[in-house]
Amino acid sequence: TPLPEPVIFGEAVAVDDWVFVVGGRSQVFGGEASTKVFAAQATDGALGAWSEVAELPMGRTNHELVLVGDELVVVGGAEAEGGDANVLVARVRFR
């Protein structure tokens, strides 16, 4: 299932039966860092429709994304030139 828009330099992670795509930008040269977070459910080997499930408080591209327990953590990257020290955390599992 294609994403709703092109994403390059974003990150993806699987959480249970969901796939999340965070940040990135739409083209290799130029383009603004994205604040969008997309998710799609994987069922029986097929990926469902993507939906925008959240927005980051700042654009993020060329970052790292990891699942730590119940939370996704975004580190590194930046909105524009250079990097920054912001760490973004969002809960994705609710038990």
Question: If you had to describe this structure to a student in words, what would you say it looks like?
Answer:
This protein has 95 residues and is mostly beta strands. The protein is 0% helix and 41% strand. It contains no helices and eight strands. The chain has strands at 11-15, 18-22, 36-43, 46-47, 51-55, 64-68, 71-75, 88-91. The strands form two sheets. Strands 1, 2, 3, 4 and 5 form a five-stranded antiparallel beta sheet that branches. A hairpin with a 2-residue loop joins strand 3 and strand 4. The protein starts with 10 loop residues before the first strand and ends with a strand. The model has no long low-confidence stretch (mean pLDDT 92).
Shape: globular
Radius of gyration (Å): 13 Å
By secondary-structure content and strand pairing, the structural class works out as: mainly beta
Fraction in beta strands: 35-45%
Give the fraction of residues assigned to helices. Answer: under 10%
Question: On the 0-100 scale, what is the average pLDDT?
Answer: 92
* SSE order, one letter for each helix or strand: EEEEEEEE
What's the number of extended β-strand segments? 8
Distance between the termini: 28 Å
- Unreliably modeled segments: none
